[in-house]
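Re-running N-formylglutamate amidohydrolase to confirm reproducibility after the cluster update. Everything else is unchanged from the original entry.
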Amino acid sequence: MTAADILPGTGTDLLLLCDHASAWVPDDIAIPPHLLSLHVGVDIGAGPLTRALSARLDAPAILGTVSRLVIDLHRQSDHPGLIPEVSDGHAIRANVGADRADRIARFHAPYHRAIRDQVRRDRPRLIVAIHSFTPQLETGGGPRPWEAGILYGRDDRAARIAIDYLRAQGIPTGDQEPYSGRILNATLDRHAEGQGIPSLSVEVRNDLIADPAGVARWCAILADMIAAVRNGLALERASAQ
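Result of re-run:
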């Protein structure tokens, strides 16, 4: 098992990322199997959606290949939640006292190295990260009413276009919901914003992409959204010249 699943594509001005695409756990780490089909173990539907978008847009994509309960690829290497001991109320006993350096070396570092190398080689004009969120956390908080959320850091060029587009289609869309990208946006902070590349993170509510029909519907929606973002960014570049 490699740390990153890299999908090819000729449209190298766009790069798709999916940190939490996999529920795979290596044999030497004892994560309770029933957790791996829940949102704490994998971003439900995000992997299939990313693959569908990659095929539809002929764009390269990089997907994580290990469960977020083994190590969270969408965290900085020094983040306290990198190897979660509790996730949405579920105790992860295998992570208590885990060898942090070993897990980073096996999973986290090679995944981010793969993204770094791709970005350096292609220098995409847009990076889009695909995630999903649960309609309601088990540990509290009310229902999450949005169908999608757009997250971003300091650079909101791409995100603003995406939010306006989705809302214009009548899709309930959160701006920095269900959480803020200024609080948690580690992968894009590092590989997009840190390199001056416009980016956004898309969070789709996981009950909407839990089956092939939902994935197909949202693939079409997001493909059109990405086209709108690319066009909008191109117009901004042209006007700046």
